């Protein structure tokens, strides 16, 4: 299976969530077992020579890809969640959205100094969510080896925002 095949499996939904937006619906790729397997295998191959302690997955689709990648790499998985979803003591990071702000949280004891992590999400647009996750990871003392995304929306320049923090890997580019 090629990257072109994977790209074709991602459905485009025009004018969602608002007029003018071309939403990249990755659920069509996830429901196809061959495509999903290939995505995880390609990401695993990219990182297989790195010593990774944890994959940090961003709520919510970052959990799907991140957990599978952690399993394949033989490392732990750490969720970064929206507020109020984690049961133990957390730290939080607020970040800007197009209209307003949002917040992410991570358990205070999720990572420690020197842990090597990959931060995973399904898609990077402007990079704000991934940047907030990175700030949380760094506040706990861990080292970010890379960001990893299934889809990158090139025109929105999220890579530019994240590149000063760590390597940025994306499988598919639109």
Features:
174 residues, alpha/beta, two-stranded antiparallel ribbon, 34% strand, globular
What structural class do helix, strand and pairing data support?
alpha/beta
Based on Cα principal axes, name the global outline. Answer: globular
Report the portion of residues in β strands: 25-35%
Question: SSE order, as H and E?
Answer: HEEHHEHEEEEHEHE
Helical fraction equals 25-40%
The total of beta strands comes to: 9
**Mind summarizing the main beta sheet?**
5 strands, parallel
What's the end-to-end separation, in Å? Answer: 18 Å
Q: What's the Cα radius of gyration?
A: 16 Å
Stretches where pLDDT is under 50 for at least 5 consecutive residues are none
Sheet with the most strands: spatial strand order? 4-3-7-8-9
- The count of helical stretches stands at 6
> What's the overall average pLDDT, rounded?
96
Overall description:
With 174 residues, this protein is an alpha/beta fold. 32% of the residues lie in helices and 34% in strands. It has helices at residues 3-8, 27-30, 33-47, 61-73, 128-139, 158-162, and strands at residues 11-14, 22-25, 54-58, 76-80, 90-97, 100-107, 116-124, 143-152, 167-173. The strands form 3 sheets. It has a 5-stranded parallel beta sheet with strand order 4-3-7-8-9, sandwiched between helices. Strand 1 (11-14) and strand 2 form a beta hairpin. The longest helix has 15 residues, at 33-47. The radius of gyration is 16 Å and the shape is globular.
Write a brief structural summary.
The protein is 32% helix and 34% strand. With 174 residues, the chain is of the alpha/beta class. α3 (33-47) crosses α4.
């Amino acid at each position: 299976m090629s990257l072109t095949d994977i790209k074709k499996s991602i459905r485009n939904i025009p004018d969602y969530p608002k007029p003018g937006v071309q939403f990249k619906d990755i659920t069509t790729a996830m429901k196809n077992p061959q495509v999903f397997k290939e995505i995880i295998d390609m990401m695993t191959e990219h990182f297989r020579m790195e010593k990774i302690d944890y994959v940090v997955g961003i709520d919510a689709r970052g959990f799907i890809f991140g957990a599978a990648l952690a399993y394949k790499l033989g490392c732990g998985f750490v969720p970064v969640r929206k507020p109020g979803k984690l049961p133990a003591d957390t730290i939080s990071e607020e970040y800007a959205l197009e209209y307003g702000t949002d917040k992410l949280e991570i358990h205070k004891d999720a990572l420690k100094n020197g842990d090597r992590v990959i931060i995973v999400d399904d898609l990077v647009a402007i990079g704000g969510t991934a940047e907030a996750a990175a700030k949380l990871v760094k506040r706990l003392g861990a080292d970010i080896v890379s960001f990893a995304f299934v889809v990158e929306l090139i025109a929105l320049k999220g890579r530019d925002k994240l590149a000063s923090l760590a390597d940025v890997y994306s499988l598919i580019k639109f």
